[in-house]
Amino acid sequence: MREDLAAAKLRDPAARGALEIALLYPGLHAVWWHRVWHALWVRRLRFLARAGSQLTRWFTGIEIHPGATIGRRFFIDHGMGVVIGETAEVGDDVMLYHGVTLGGRTTDGGKRHPTLEDGVAVGSGAKILGPIRIGARSVVGANAVVTRDAPADSILVGVPAKPRARRAGEDTRAILTAPEYVI
């Protein structure tokens, strides 16, 4: 929990202190409860895990399927409307803004949702769909629709999103707020 609080403080310039973050950040509440529901899910207490995840969704506006695998220091900023599907995998130090979907494109069984490697940042309203992989330290621009794999250190913008390599010294926060990376 301390790592999560520190990650929120690092990534949100509006964060004032650990108590405020712990009590008032629904993205953290959703992640903390997800860990409980995921533990039940892997122990095959599936109904209880799904019921708990729906209760968390009702309270936070953030839907994380209990089957999803979430890494350390995951931060959801202004999380209303975030949806993370059952077979999604999220690495360490990943950040999502509101309205992000990590969704599927098929009803077939097996891996249906994306994998975000370590250090990925995803802008507001972005949709990452299907069993694709977004490479480490990549940035997905606001409202981008990503349906294909992207290598590490990519910047993905547009509909459909097309990756480009990150330039030396480009800061993730600056990329996510630059007008040319929003549609």
Description:
With 183 residues, the protein is an alpha/beta fold. Helices cover 30% and strands 21% of the residues. It is built from 5 helices and 15 strands. It has helices spanning 2-11, 18-24, 26-42, 46-60, 172-177, and strands at residues 63-64, 69-70, 75-76, 83-84, 89-90, 95-96, 101-103, 115-116, 121-122, 127-129, 133-134, 139-140, 145-146, 154-158, 161-165. The chain has a 6-stranded mixed sheet with strand order 3-6-9-12-14-15. Strand 14 and strand 15 (161-165) form a beta hairpin. Helix 3 runs antiparallel to helix 4 (46-60). It is globular, with a radius of gyration of 16 Å. The mean pLDDT is 91.
Summarize the SSE layout with pairings.
Blueprint: H1 2-11, H2 18-24, H3 26-42, H4 46-60, E1 63-64, E2 69-70, E3 75-76, E4 83-84, E5 89-90, E6 95-96, E7 101-103, E8 115-116, E9 121-122, E10 127-129, E11 133-134, E12 139-140, E13 145-146, E14 154-158, E15 161-165, H5 172-177
Parallel strand pairs: 1-4, 2-5, 3-6, 4-7, 5-8, 6-9, 7-10, 8-11, 9-12, 10-13, 12-14
Antiparallel strand pairs: 14-15
